[in-house]
Structure formats: structure tokens, C-alpha cells
């Protein structure tokens, strides 16, 4: 079985991450100010390349409560993360050596430990906002393979279970596998190619007017512009179906997080060196959450990373198996109670 990423790629990403100095914003700004940003042939800032986010897999979305407003691991906490990552990578590599595939292959190997305590940076305590009353009601009724006990129809699962989409903002956060993100540019457009669910976000940056508000889409509709060397992308026109977060991202809320058609997302992509890019995403949905929230972390370019086809539906027997098993278990329970 081929290695997903070469060791040379790991080493290159590791050297880049070592330079992050715990990814503090001030350090990133200093590096960006002293670095000459490349341009495309048509004059836009060049942010193209393969930017996999698998190095962030062990960073939780929500910050552990004991950290408070501190978002940097101390030496002891960092060593614990290093050891956790070593166990994860060893499980993968042991399966490689024995030429078999088991649970170790559910988690991609090669991640590099960082000192960031959580992806969420606002609120300052790194916690996901409280749901509104409407959000709580919707959460209880949402489909999911994780947060319910019975299944009778496909709609009892979330749209990721059904191989439709991870949605936004969830698609921009690290998962246990398929973390590839490739940025492609052409005059007037930036394309964000996502490995998970093999989606491509096509972002006009040429002043194309927004879609009519009545047009709603799974991933919304994005429009971008350049603020200096920073790409700013605003996404609206969501259909309100996908979850706002999902369990595949470490440290995500352990309940359904709904979205509405009023979901609005603003992203900022700032390349600060040859192999680093600061990524920030702000999410607001006044129907479902009490306040906006922001996540931020550093991307690391790795040209050795390869994106593989994400063929979900071809082998997706989960939906049928869950429904059949759920019905069988309830029939057996009912018979036992007679």
C-alpha cells in the first residue's frame, strides 16, 4: 500500500511548523511583513498549492475548559500531545509493516504536534457558543449516526453520513483522514479543492454579483476579494441543512449543531511565507447560535501530499445497515416485552 505522504513531505512540513513559534498572531504578522509575496501572471497574490491540514488533527475545535483564555500548550501539555501522536502514528506504521489494514488506518499518520490548544479563538475561552432556543429545538430533531438511538429513514442521518457534504464551516476543519486542500487560481477565480467528499469551492474574485437570495445551496455561494495580500471570502445562500460542526473533528460539541438559511461565513487566507498561510474563519447564524465564533490556525504547504478519490456512495452500506439493525433491535425488544 502506498504511503499517502512521503517522509520528505513530513520533514518539510515539520520544519515549517517549527518556525511557527506556537502560531502566535504577532509572530505571523512579523514574518508576513518581511516576506515578498509572489504574484500570479495576472497580478493577484499567489496562494496556490497543496495545503493539507492533517497536521492539525489532534488540535480540538473547542478548548479544554481548564485552559480558560490560554490557547498555547505549556511544555508538559505539549509532550503529552507528542506522545499521543506517536502512538497514533505507530499504529499506522505497524499496519504498514505487517501489510494489513485495521483500525490504525482510520487515522492518517504523519501529523506534527503543535502548541495550539484549540481551533476556536473567539470567544476568548475557546468554547462553542450556546444554541438559541430555536437551535436547541432543531438540534434534538436532526439526523445523525452519532446522536440518536433509532433510525428508520435516510433523513435520520446527517448529510455527511449520506455522502452529500460536510457543509460549511465543518469542511474547513481537520478530520481523521482525507485532509487535503488544494488551492488553484485563474484570472477572476480561486478554487478550493477539498479531498473530503471531493468538493470544489469555486470563488469568483472578479466582482461577480451575489446570487439571488432565493437560491440556496448545500455549501452556500461564495464571493471573494483581495484585501492587500489577503483573500477575503464571504459565503451566504446556505440551505440550512448541514450541521455546523461534526464529530470527525476532534473536540467538537457532542450534540447536533444546526445551521439555518441565515448562516454567514467570512474567511481570510493570508500567506505569510513560502510554506505557511494563516487561515481564519468567522461564523454567524443568529437563528441557531447566541453569538458569532471564530477559528484560526496555520496551514502548511506540502507539495508531496496526494489527493485520492473520495468514493463514498460506492460502498456506503451504513445507512441501510443502521436502519435494518435499528428496526430488528426494536422488534426483538417488543417481542421480549410481550
Ordered list of secondary-structure elements with their pairings:
Elements lengths: L6 H12 L6 H9 L15 E2 L24 H24 L21 E3 L10 H9 L39 E6 L2 E6 L4 E6 L16 E7 L2 E7 L27 E10 L2 E9 L8 E8 L17 H20 L1
Antiparallel strand pairs: 1-3, 2-10, 3-4, 4-5, 6-7, 7-8, 8-9, 9-10
Number of helices: 5
Mean pLDDT reading: 87
| Secondary-structure class | alpha+beta
Low-confidence stretches: 1-24
Shape: globular
Percentage of residues assigned to helices: 10-25%
Percentage of β-strand residues? 15-25%
Structurally, how many domains make up the residues? 1
Count every beta strand, where a strand is a DSSP E run of 2 or more residues: 10
Radius of gyration: 21 Å
* Alpha carbon gap, first and last residue: 52 Å
**Topology pattern, helix = H, strand = E:** HHEHEHEEEEEEEEH
Largest sheet: 6 strands, antiparallel
Widest β-sheet, arrangement of strands: 2-10-9-8-7-6
Question: Can you walk me through this structure?
Answer:
It is a single chain. This protein is an alpha+beta fold and 338 residues long. It has one domain (7-337). It has helices at residues 7-18, 25-33, 75-98, 133-141, 318-337; strands spanning 49-50, 120-122, 181-186, 189-194, 199-204, 221-227, 230-236, 264-273, 276-284, 293-300. Strands 2-10-9-8-7-6 form a 6-stranded antiparallel sheet. The protein has a 4-stranded antiparallel sheet with strand order 1-3-4-5, with no helix packed on it. The longest helix is centred in the first third of the chain and has 24 residues, at 75-98.
Amino acid at each position: 500500500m502506498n504511503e499517502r505522504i512521503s517522509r520528505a513531505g513530513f520533514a518539510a512540513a515539520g520544519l515549517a511548523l517549527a518556525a511557527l513559534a506556537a502560531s502566535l498572531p504577532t509572530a505571523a504578522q512579523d514574518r508576513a511583513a518581511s516576506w515578498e509575496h509572489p504574484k500570479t501572471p495576472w497580478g493577484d497574490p499567489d496562494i496556490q498549492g497543496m495545503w493539507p491540514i492533517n497536521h492539525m488533527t489532534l488540535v480540538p475545535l473547542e478548548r479544554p475548559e481548564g485552559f480558560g483564555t490560554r490557547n498555547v500548550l505549556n511544555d508538559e501539555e505539549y509532550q503529552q500531545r507528542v506522545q499521543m501522536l506517536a502512538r497514533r502514528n505507530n499504529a499506522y506504521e505497524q499496519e504498514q509493516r505487517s501489510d494489513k489494514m485495521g483500525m490504525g488506518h482510520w487515522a492518517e499518520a504523519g501529523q506534527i504536534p503543535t502548541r495550539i490548544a484549540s481551533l476556536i479563538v473567539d470567544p476568548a475561552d475557546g468554547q462553542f457558543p450556546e444554541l438559541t432556543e430555536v437551535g436547541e429545538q432543531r438540534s434534538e430533531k436532526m439526523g445523525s449516526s452519532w446522536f440518536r438511538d433509532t433510525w428508520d429513514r435516510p433523513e435520520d442521518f446527517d448529510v455527511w453520513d449520506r455522502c452529500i457534504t460536510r457543509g460549511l464551516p465543518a469542511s474547513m476543519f481537520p478530520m481523521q483522514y482525507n485532509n487535503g486542500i488544494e488551492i488553484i487560481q485563474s484570472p477572476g477565480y480561486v478554487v478550493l479543492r477539498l479531498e473530503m467528499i471531493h468538493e470544489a469551492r469555486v470563488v469568483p474574485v472578479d466582482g461577480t454579483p451575489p446570487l439571488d437570495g432565493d437560491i440556496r445551496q448545500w455549501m452556500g455561494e461564495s464571493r471573494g476579494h483581495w484585501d492587500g495580500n489577503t483573500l477575503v471570502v464571504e459565503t451566504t445562500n446556505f440551505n440550512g441543512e448541514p450541521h455546523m460542526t461534526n464529530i470527525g473533528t476532534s473536540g467538537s460539541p457532542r450534540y447536533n449543531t444546526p445551521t439555518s438559511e441565515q448562516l454567514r461565513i467570512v474567511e481570510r487566507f493570508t500567506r505569510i511565507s513560502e510554506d505557511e498561510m494563516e487561515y481564519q474563519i468567522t461564523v454567524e447564524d443568529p437563528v441557531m447560535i447566541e453569538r458569532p465564533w471564530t477559528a484560526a490556525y496555520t496551514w502548511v504547504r506540502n507539495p508531496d501530499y496526494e489527493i485520492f478519490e473520495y468514493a463514498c456512495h460506492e460502498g456506503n452500506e451504513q445507512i441501510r445497515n443502521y436502519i435494518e439493525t435499528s428496526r430488528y433491535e426494536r422488534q426483538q425488544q417488543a417481542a421480549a416485552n410481550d
